[in-house]
């Protein structure tokens, strides 16, 4: 009896171990050889193309790298994105202040640790002002040259419009002189302030400007730049189109890609149409829902059309729906889909060759948990220095061994467990019966 119980525990342990064991190349449907000049011991970069992205799950749970010995090789995947650059800020030290008539003069000193600056910002208490600003810079207060001139203003009593920054020629001069002057008052008298800004006109007619006080003056250093992405694209020339029951144009696109934008090439000379992006889960044809929309147009006088729709959504099946209303369908010559490039990084071992394996129906294949992400941080400046390798075309893996689906396996496991439990109960009943028979009192004469 005890021997049978031990056998049962061992069997359960083997099932659990089988579920938790590492993957092997036979767990994946596709494979591709990784080629290129390698440097052992250093991270290498592999760009994942359309074929790999289409064959894998959105979290890359079914993507692995194996060496020629069949050993699983850790990797990390990053989007090829350059982080935004932001300016750093420092505060000037006010050396002196003087006022004369309609002008104010402020002498400033730059902190010793500050870097060259290209913009000055005034932190001002008060509203409804308009002042011209002249900026002079130099190595001493006696040798200053003009580096910028601008107008700062505030019209918040009438409209949300305020500007308190001045662009200057980049300089690291330690001394500045700022001259603030009131703009020439309106000839009609009063305290009216007027401004023409970007084709619009603003004024504070007949209102007394609020108190004007410069609380701090800041310098901004460094280049300001938004995040930039590297994109891969798929081009669909002369895509097949059809009309739905409402007369809208439907265009089916290649699926399972992390699409960031769609660009259409339309032959019509003038148009304006609303375009919806529809998405459906992989394996569920016919069930689509809207994940974004935009407007494409070209009107008389435009040299270039506006034909790109931006959005961000996980992978799936995609289609476009162009809302035609009562207009004839557009002549769509091509559609281009784009997504942020994904790069895979792994460390090459000397003497080894590597292949990439993707796509799996084996339900035991789960997202790998490697520590390489902690060793290779997402630093764009460093990542782009790593050598690049290439991936060959995905080929069918002849050694792929799919497992049964989870529902079937669970049903068989429950049946087997039921049989085992019944066997154990029967064995225990038999054992108890024998035990009772062996302890029965002897018969009387």
Helix-strand blueprint:
Elements: H1 2-20, E1 30-35, E2 43-48, H2 50-55, E3 63-67, E4 72-73, E5 76-79, E6 81-82, E7 88-91, E8 93-100, E9 103-109, E10 117-125, E11 129-140, E12 143-154, E13 162-163, E14 165-171, E15 175-182, E16 194-197, E17 200-203, E18 213-221, E19 228-229, E20 231-237, E21 242-243, E22 249-253, E23 261-266, E24 271-280, E25 289-298, E26 308-310, E27 317-323, E28 332-340, E29 342-347, E30 354-358, H3 372-375, H4 380-383, E31 388-391, E32 395-396, H5 406-438
Parallel strand pairs: 2-31
Antiparallel strand pairs: 1-30, 1-31, 1-32, 2-29, 3-4, 3-30, 5-29, 6-19, 7-18, 8-9, 9-15, 10-14, 10-18, 11-12, 11-15, 12-13, 16-17, 20-28, 21-22, 22-27, 23-26, 23-28, 24-25, 24-27
Notes on the protein architecture:
The protein has 445 residues and is mostly beta strands. It has five helices and 32 strands. It has helices at 2-20, 50-55, 372-375, 380-383, 406-438, and strands at 30-35, 43-48, 63-67, 72-73, 76-79, 81-82, 88-91, 93-100, 103-109, 117-125, 129-140, 143-154, 162-163, 165-171, 175-182, 194-197, 200-203, 213-221, 228-229, 231-237, 242-243, 249-253, 261-266, 271-280, 289-298, 308-310, 317-323, 332-340, 342-347, 354-358, 388-391, 395-396. The strands form seven sheets. Strands 1, 2, 3, 4, 5, 29, 30, 31 and 32 form a nine-stranded mixed beta sheet that branches. The longest helix has 33 residues, at 406-438.
């Amino acid at each position: 009896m005890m021997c049978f119980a031990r056998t049962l525990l061992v069997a359960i342990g083997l099932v659990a171990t089988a579920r938790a064991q590492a993957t092997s190349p036979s767990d994946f449907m596709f494979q591709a050889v990784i080629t290129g000049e390698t440097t052992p011991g250093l991270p290498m970069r592999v760009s994942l193309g359309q074929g790999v992205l289409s064959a894998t799950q959105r979290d890359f749970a079914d993507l692995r790298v194996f060496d020629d010995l069949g050993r699983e090789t850790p990797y990390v995947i990053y989007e090829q994105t350059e982080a935004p650059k932001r300016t750093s800020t420092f505060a000037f030290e006010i050396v002196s202040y003087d006022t004369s008539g309609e002008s104010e003069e402020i002498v400033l000193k730059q902190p010793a640790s500050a870097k060259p600056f290209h913009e000055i910002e005034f932190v001002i208490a008060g509203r409804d002002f308009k002042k011209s600003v002249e900026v002079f810079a130099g190595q001493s207060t006696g040798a200053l040259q003009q580096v910028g001139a601008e107008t700062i203003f505030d019209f918040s009593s009438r409209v949300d419009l305020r500007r308190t920054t001045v662009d200057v020629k980049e300089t690291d001069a330690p001394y500045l002189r700022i001259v603030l002057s009131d703009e020439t008052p309106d000839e009609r008298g009063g305290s009216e302030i007027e401004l023409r800004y970007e084709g619009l006109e603003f004024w504070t007619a007949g209102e007394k400007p609020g108190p004007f006080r410069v609380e701090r003056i800041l310098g901004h250093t460094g280049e300001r730049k938004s995040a930039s992405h590297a994109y891969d694209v798929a081009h669909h020339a002369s895509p097949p189109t059809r009309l739905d029951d409402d007369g809208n144009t439907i265009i089916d696109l290649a699926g399972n890609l992390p699409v960031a934008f769609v660009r259409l090439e339309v032959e019509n000379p003038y148009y304006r149409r609303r375009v919806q992006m529809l998405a459906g889960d992989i394996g569920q044809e016919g069930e689509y829902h809207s994940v974004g929309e935009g407007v494409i147009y070209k009107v008389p006088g435009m040299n270039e059309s506006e034909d790109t729709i931006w959005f961000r959504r996980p992978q799936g099946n995609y289609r476009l729906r162009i809302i035609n209303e009562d207009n004839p369908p557009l002549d769509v010559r091509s559609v281009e889909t784009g997504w942020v490039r994904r790069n895979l990084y792994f460390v090459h071992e000397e003497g080894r060759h590597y292949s990439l394996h993707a796509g799996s129906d084996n339900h035991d294949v789960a997202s790998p948990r490697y520590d390489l992400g902690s060793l290779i941080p997402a630093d764009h400046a460093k990542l782009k220095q790593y050598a690049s390798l290439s991936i060959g075309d995905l080929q069918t893996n002849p050694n792929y061994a799919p497992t049964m689906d989870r529902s079937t396996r669970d049903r068989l496991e429950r049946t087997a467990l039921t049989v085992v439990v019944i066997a154990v109960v029967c064995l225990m009943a038999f054992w108890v019966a024998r035990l009772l028979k062996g302890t029965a009192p002897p018969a009387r004469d």
